[in-house]
Amino acid sequence: AVVRSPHLVSFRDARGETMCAGVRLAIDGAPALPPESFTTEDATRLRTACRVSGRFDGAAAAFRYDARIIVHAGSARATILLTITHNAPRAVETAVTDVACAFELDSDAEEAVAGTERGAIALPPGGAAALTQLDDLGYRVAGPGGVAASGTRAPGWIAARTARGWTALGVRHFWQNHPKALFLEPRALGVRLWTGDAPLTWEGGLAKTHEIVLDFGAKKPDRMRLDPLRAAAPPAWVCGTQALGGPLLPRCREAIERFPYYEALREAGMRRWVRAMPFGFRHFGDAYLGGPWKGKNAYANLEYDVHFNFLLEHLRTGDPWYLSCAEAMARHQADIDTDHVTGQPWKHGPDHTTTEAELGHVFVRGLLLHYALTGETRSVETACRIGDWIASKMPRADDFNNERWVGWSLHALAGLFETTRDERYLAAARAAVAKLCAGQAPSGKLPLRYDNRIAFFNGIAMQGMLDVGDQTGDPAIAEAVARIAHRTFGMYPDYACRTLNAYARLARLTPDPRYLDTLRKTWESSMAFLMPRDAVTAATYAWQFPHAAARHGLLPLFDREPPPALSPAGWRAQRIPQAEIECYVRRTGAAPASILVILEGPATGAAALWDPTGRPCAERRFSDDARLFQPWTIAVPAGACRLRLAAESGGAWQLHHDAAAQIVFHDPRGAVLPWLFPAAAGFVREGAAEIGLTLEAMGEGFHTATLSSAGGEPLAALRRFVDRDDKGRYELVLAAPAGPPVVRIDVALANVIAIEGLLPYFAGSPEDLFNPERELRR
User: Fold this and answer.
1) 777 has a pLDDT exceeding 80
2) Structure letter (DSSP) for residue 288
């Protein structure tokens, strides 16, 4: 039971006995005042969510707290989503040195432990002790006798035993949101949500949410699960409902046969995006943007709805990894990238909150889909705050700056109405579209301040208007969009997938063959543009295209040979932008297995396969440099076979397989290692005392590397930030004592120039790893 109290709330068990006597929350010693409201947001037989809100006293009076507490029937676990907001104008900045949240135990602690990457370690009961993580590279555990232990990245939990039993306190994404500390008092467990000597400049309008977990049990914990359990429906069923508002093609056999290269581009791009994600209280969940155009040390502020793309992949695949990543992004946007006083979003710029967004940079679909998939009400509330700000601008629709302002604002308002059924959003969108249609020229030109004549801008406008048409049922909107599309046919082709949804939707409404022809040409120009960049946000305005292409038979990849029989359930791919690759492939059992090799182009090259005895058994010449993607399907023989790929004129290689086959790369110099996902896995060399990497860091951004065990426990990490004006070259050394026989390696924005203590064979996961030398000796 969750009970309102002067100290926010207390927790009791089914017998009415106190498990946690109260919660003390303070900013620089200024305490949280008793709750102003205590409401039940959701109550079913399985789950109850209540909400406690109030403000702080004294010098922190401009700050408010909002705690959503979620409990489940039959579980002694409570999840608290604690949001603290500086409720003041942006110009007001407050230096904060300590944000503490303590949970009072039912009696004095008799025994205590703290979680580390090596398991639980004992803390001295009856006295003060703390686990402090000041950055993403190291933590220390200290008590009255000094530092008791240290490590790289703490899992983020602490526990104490009282006369009643054990109480564990954990913070999800603990080290990622540094600086943090967990602390033990004689009769309390607590977390410092900001700690250390350097103060946090907390500007007005900024919020921060932390997910705190309390677990009450009888047994001494050695581990604590902080990630929530996820329920996922079958992707084919989810996509088949068209609940998103249109057809979404799941990662099925048809998708892999028609667009395997796009699956690999998206997968590799998203894995690389997450691997390069910066950490810290303000930055976690976003990407570093850099460059000279958006200001010094600019961040991306999730431009083009990055988390919406991750959630699409979760729906297409059922993989909870995408949902977990998107959750960090959604919370970042809801906290950092939104002014919670005005509702106006912040767009890409220095430190996230220095550049106000206009109507061309308003992204809410990721927040709305996160709410739909998790029930996290803060996401929809923040989306509504942004929507209120957008709606306030709609009466001046004749002052739209360009097509992107039209598209993003209407796309947001239509999604808000669809999710909340609040007529205010639809009324604002309908009024804006009516003005646009009334002022549209016969050529399709909209009445805007600037006529950019950019195809992808028009694609964004078409999508937003079609979204409003879906909600209103007004056929005049589709007619107006068709006029925009006809005008767009004569422009320079879209090269970033921004027109594909609109063309696909119009192709369903009319038999005009120009839509299908333009879909094909736009897809080809977009793939050529995205290959050397990334495709992370490609689906924002293109997620309906793959279904349309499959339906109409567009762009078949295997028009000259049969496609590989790869299982969607076990599909995986590596995309490696190296001219020459040497690897070993083998079957995991007696069943037939295939490897799909794709050369990205336009390029030429050759591939050859040798059986375990060294005899050539297959080869292919890639000579059609007019094709962007040249495939070759290999039937994998028995035993470990050597595969060599060599591109002669640029290009990158993709290797696709499923659980029936394994691929290991021979990479003694580490050129391939940074491109392996989810993480490079390698063998520790027998007799090695230490393992390590020497890396080269050049150019703006966060250059990072991490060594972990096969299970993901960090062994060592490094990070070097290179500023925009720094033209230097830096050699970085990452080392750890040799321990587990298999290690994982994550490298972001750095080149490997030397490897120590590891065999020269690496795979994209421990499950795919095998030793070719041992196989060939059999």
Assistant:
1) no
2) B
The structure's pTM equals 0.96
CATH of domain 235-552: 1.50.10.10
Spatial separation of the C-alpha atoms in residues 101 and 33, rounded to whole Å: 13
The maximal CA–CA distance of the chain, rounded, in angstroms, is 81
Task: Give residues with Cβ within 8 angstroms of 746, minimum separation 6.
Answer: 275, 679, 680, 704, 705, 706, 708
Helices 306-317 & 320-335, crossing angle to 10 degrees? 160
Q: Determine the Cα–Cα distance for residues 177 and 277; give it in Å rounded to an integer.
A: 12
- The C-alpha atoms of residue 195 and residue 724 are separated, in whole angstroms, by 29
Alpha carbon distances (Å) from 216 to 7, 74, 122, 181, 770:
19, 12, 18, 21, 42
Fold of 2-217: Beta-galactosidase; Chain A, domain 5 (2.70.98)
Q: Encode pLDDT of 23-75 as tens digits.
A: 999 999 999 999 999 999 888 999 999 999 999 999 999 999 999 999 998 89
Helix 320-335 vs helix 260-275: crossing angle, to nearest 10: 50
Question: Residue length, the chain?
Answer: 778
**Calculated CA dihedral for residues 328, 332, 333, 334, nearest 10 degrees:** 100
Neighbours of 725 (CB within 10 A): 8
Torsion angle, CA of 409/411/415/417, rounded to 10 degrees? 60
CB 619 within 8 A of CB 591: no
CATH top-level class of 563-665: mainly beta
| Tally of helices (H runs) and strands (E runs) in the chain | 15, 40
Where in the chain do CATH 2.70.98 domains reside?
A: 2-217
pLDDT at 4 over 90: no
Distance CA(469)–CA(429), nearest Å, equals 10
Look at the domain 667-778 and name its fold.
Jelly Rolls (2.60.120)
Nearest alpha-carbon partner for 675 in 550, 552, 560, 577: 577
Strands (E), 569-671: 572-576, 580-587, 594-600, 605-610, 616-622, 629-635, 641-647, 653-657, 661-666
**CATH 1.50.10.10 in the chain, residues?**
235-552
Distance CA 190, CA 116 (A): 17
Tokens at 729, concatenated = 């070259």
